[in-house]
Amino acid sequence: MKPQIITQYDAPHQFEPLLPADSVLGPLLERASDLSRAATALGNTAGQTAQLELRKLLRSMNSYYTNRIEGEHTRPSDIERALQQDFSAQADLARKQRLAVAHIRTEAVCEAELDRRRTQGEATDAAARWLYTPEALTWLHAQLFDGLPASDLTLADGSQMVPGQFRQRAVAVGRHEAPTAASLPLFLARWAEAYGRTRRGEASIVALAAAHHRLAWTHPFLDGNGRVTRLHTHLVLHALGLTNGLWSPLRGFSRTEARYKALLQAADEHRRGDLDGRGNLTQAGLVDWINYTLDVCMDQVQFMAQQLQVGSMRDRIQAALAFEAATTQSGVREEALLPLHYLFATQAELGRADFKTMTGLGDRLSTQLLTSLLRRGFLATDSAYGKVRFAIPRHALRFYFPALWPEAEQDEEWLRAEGVG
Fold first, then answer.
1. Neighbours of 321 (CB within 10 A)
2. Which terminal CB of the chain, N or C, has fewer other CB atoms within 10 Å?
């Protein structure tokens, strides 16, 4: 039976309010201010090297979680293989691998573009404002889906999704019929005006949470709307200088998926009476959604602040090295503890000779150890003889950052049990 459609939308006033009224905005602004302070403090605890290596890991994790919300996720090890251009012979798994790699690539490209805009003399909030333009939305969509084979872009009804193109026909999601295709430019122009001009600071954080729902509600593309909307929220936080490559709401959205979807749907509903704001849609539902988004973001910031504590990291590195030495023949030794902890704590790079000296081993053994650490991913470098920096191998995740990506830890356990890797 076809779901009952609530109404047809063709005028932008129909998705008001875009922001809660001043009478209920105060507590949200206070919570957004708390989030801003916590995120800034977290960013100050980690230097560039930690951000570089963590960002690589988090992009894979973000890809896993955003695709899981869509029911299109695959195992973390499959993502890892896809990044090495090793795709499955199974068509459906290979398609999911391509979607995962597309998200990772897009997140990197988009963050680089935002950083470029911020370093070319533009206003501090210009990059965030640009993200609210229709042009930015089509760019994000095109980045996510350009380069995928036609088979990956074929929709359930047999039609083809065109990357970067707004939909040209009506769509319904459950009981919600999205705005008519002809009215989309008006809705998106109003969306851009309301959120792109929000003043910087806590107001911009409240706005990005509200914008997430209203963009999903508008459903501007035939497919990929959820991925674009979540990526957009991640990127606005990045543009505002709040994530520093150390956290993302995508993990939190996925780990509370049922609540994420329920609150999005609840905010779709019509105004519930005279005490529910002055717009066509429910203000109470929008406030609930914003509070949830702030909860998710604060939870992720606090979680990563705990994970990045320098004091406890020494014991975690030692545990990882001890396990590696006891269970593999990789050549990794516990004498690597001192230089590895130094690299993490100082966020520095070390010349190879200095690293070897800090192990306390002779030249032959320290050279073998350095080679093993690079091969097993405990260290990273940009060239064959270049300086080394702290890295985060996926097989050491459960020691370094326990519970950050539990599915990757479980996958690693399965691979170890199967004698893979």
1. 21
2. N
List the structure tokens of 65: 């979680």
Question: Which structure tokens are listed for 279?
Answer: 């717009």
pTM comes to 0.92
Record the tokens describing residue 90, joined without a space. 């199974």
Reduced to 3 states (helix: H, G, I; strand: E, B; else coil), residue 332 is: coil
321's tokens: 């090295």
Beta strands in 101-206 (DSSP E): 172-173, 176-177
Q: Where are the beta strands (DSSP E) in 314-357?
A: none
Q: Give pLDDT tens digits for 167-192.
A: 999 888 877 889 999 999 999 999 99
From the list 55, 47, 41, the residue with the least C-alpha distance to 348 is 47
Maximal CA-CA distance, the chain: 79
pLDDT tens-place string over residues 198-238: 988 999 999 999 999 999 999 999 999 999 999 999 999 99
How far, in Å, CA of 173 to CA of 219, rounded? 9
